[in-house]
Amino acid sequence: xxxxxxxxxxxxxxxxxxxxxxxxxxxxxxxxxxxxxxxxxxxxxxxxxxxxxxxxxxxxxxxxxxxxxxxxxxxxxxxxxxxxxxxxxxxxxxxxxxxxxxxxxxxxxxxxxxxxxxx
Length: 119
Fold this sequence. Notes:
Layout: H1 2-26, H2 33-58, H3 63-89, H4 98-118
């Protein structure tokens, strides 16, 4: 668990910085303000949840925490991934995927709280 989650956290942080820089410099003149806002939201959520995943990687291996890590990774993929694609390619139906990532984030944070209370 520790190695996998820490690797995913590091990759999430790395790609978050890279995609943030790409959005700020490479897409600035190609996307509308609305699309850039969507893109920035994707970067923001990816970075915060990558940090949370790194935290989970440092905690003792418990079932609730393993699920929290899995859901954080899934949330990054679904939430931020769908927003990146929506912003860049304007694929409207991807807007239906984004809330699934948000639900994964919420469940992960709930499991973190549960694990903390059981400590």
